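We were asked to recover a plausible sequence for a given structure. The inputs and outputs are reproduced exactly as logged, with field labels preserved.

PROBLEM: sequence recovery
POSITIONS: 384
GIVEN STRUCTURE:
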């Protein structure tokens, strides 16, 4: 196991009717900006619960944060934060709203052009405090320091990370996820599943705790994910998915182990260029990547096949083939197509994505930093 330090400062407040806890968790006397998306929170009653809990605060709102939040929109919010001297951001939504809040938190107090935070990795030295109410289990953004932002005019989807933008608290009420469209339920399960895979399916370093945790999360998502589609109002199913998605990317299982993330980096270019949902891109890239890297990932693929999918064949190639096929079938069962052609894309798209990876210096991806743009091309060819 590698050396590591681990600290996750986000307080998780989990369960039914917990939105009211906002009142006790936002620092008293804060000047609050409520951030949200296109308005799903007004239709499912979350907005009403949040505003009731904000009764004791001086607050205002900023809406219209898009899925795959846009730099331009977030900069408008950052201006508002500066103008109104806001000192607490409350993000209410999915990963896009929470990621957006993190960027606003950093950009509002950044000296200089805030695009540098994303494009040049400029250091974030201060940020406005934030908290969140999660409405879509998927990204883990509710308790990590990551944010991904898109600049649409240049088709760039770039991220930054900072310990300063962890939410101070995250309220997770599984019942607010009943209103999710089927597609978003499926996207969320697939995204969380692949977050675990990115941190688990590399090479063994004798990290038994991380491996067993990861395998438990994968099995939970395999079991509970399809149930969320057939029993959408089953609270316990929603609760298990919500907690699994948070645990998948709150830093715990990734400590002390090698991490991959090539699927995500290639996927971000597919979203930026062709507008596929984040999870759709991952469902396309991951099986292809596993196929291409089956020798390098051999030991972990066998462990994954045997422990997660309970494959028993003595033939190792067969276990690996089946593990990859079952992974792909799981995404399809969730209703997320796994081939580029399913989204109307062909080899031209591969050329475009490879060019974008090069432009963004995504030229040494994966746990061995050996996925060059040429290797990304070979991977994507498996997904045609
Ligand atoms: O805009 P609203 O009205 O809120 O509607 C949203 C949006 O249309 C809707 N929705 C959310 N909760 C709902 C709901 N509709 C009904 N009922 C509810 N309870 O769902 C749609 C999608 O929301 P979005 O926030 O975009 O989805 P998700 O949570 O999947 O976030 C995706 C973004 O997160 C980034 C992705 O790249 C993408 O930009 N990621 C962030 C990560 C992180 N911070 O660690 C890691 C991930 O790998 C990912 O890259
Ligand atoms: Zn993801």
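RECOVERED SEQUENCE:
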């Amino acid at each position: 196991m590698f050396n590591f330090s681990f600290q996750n400062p986000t307080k998780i407040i989990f369960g039914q009717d917990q939105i009211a806890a906002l009142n006790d968790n936002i620092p008293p006397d804060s000047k609050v900006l409520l951030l949200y998306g296109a308005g799903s929170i007004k239709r499912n009653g979350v907005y009403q619960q949040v505003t009731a809990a904000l009764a004791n605060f001086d607050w205002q709102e900023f809406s219209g944060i898009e899925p795959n939040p846009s730099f331009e929109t977030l900069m408008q919010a950052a201006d508002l934060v500066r103008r109104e001297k806001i000192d607490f951001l409350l993000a209410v939504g999915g990963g896009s709203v929470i990621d957006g809040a993190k960027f606003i938190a950093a950009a509002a107090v950044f000296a200089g052009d805030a695009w540098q935070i994303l494009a040049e990795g400029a250091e974030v030295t201060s940020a406005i405090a934030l908290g969140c109410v999660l409405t879509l289990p998927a990204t883990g953004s509710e308790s990590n320091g990551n944010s991904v932002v898109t600049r649409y005019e240049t088709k760039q989807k770039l991220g930054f990370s900072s310990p300063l933008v962890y939410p101070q608290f995250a309220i997770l009420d599984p019942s607010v996820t009943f209103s999710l469209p089927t597609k978003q339920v499926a996207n969320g399960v697939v995204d969380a599943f692949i977050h675990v895979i990115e941190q688990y399916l590399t090479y063994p370093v004798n990290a038994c705790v991380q491996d067993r945790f990861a395998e438990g999360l994968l099995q939970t998502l395999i079991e509970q994910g399809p149930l969320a589609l057939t029993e959408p109002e089953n609270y316990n199913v929603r609760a298990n998915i919500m907690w699994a998605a948070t645990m998948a990317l709150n830093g715990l299982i990734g400590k002390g182990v090698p991490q991959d993330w090539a699927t995500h980096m290639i996927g971000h270019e597919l979203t930026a260029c062709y507008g596929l949902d984040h999870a759709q891109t991952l469902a396309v890239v991951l099986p292809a990547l596993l196929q291409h890297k089956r020798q390098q990932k051999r030991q972990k693929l066998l462990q994954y096949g045997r422990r997660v999918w309970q494959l028993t064949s003595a033939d190792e190639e067969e276990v690996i083939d089946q593990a990859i096929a079952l992974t792909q079938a799981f995404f399809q069962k969730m209703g997320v197509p796994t081939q580029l052609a399913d989204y109307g894309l062909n080899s031209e798209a591969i050329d475009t994505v490879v060019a974008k990876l090069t432009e963004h210096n995504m030229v040494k991806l994966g746990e061995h930093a050996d996925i060059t743009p040429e290797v990304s091309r070979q991977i994507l060819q498996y997904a045609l």
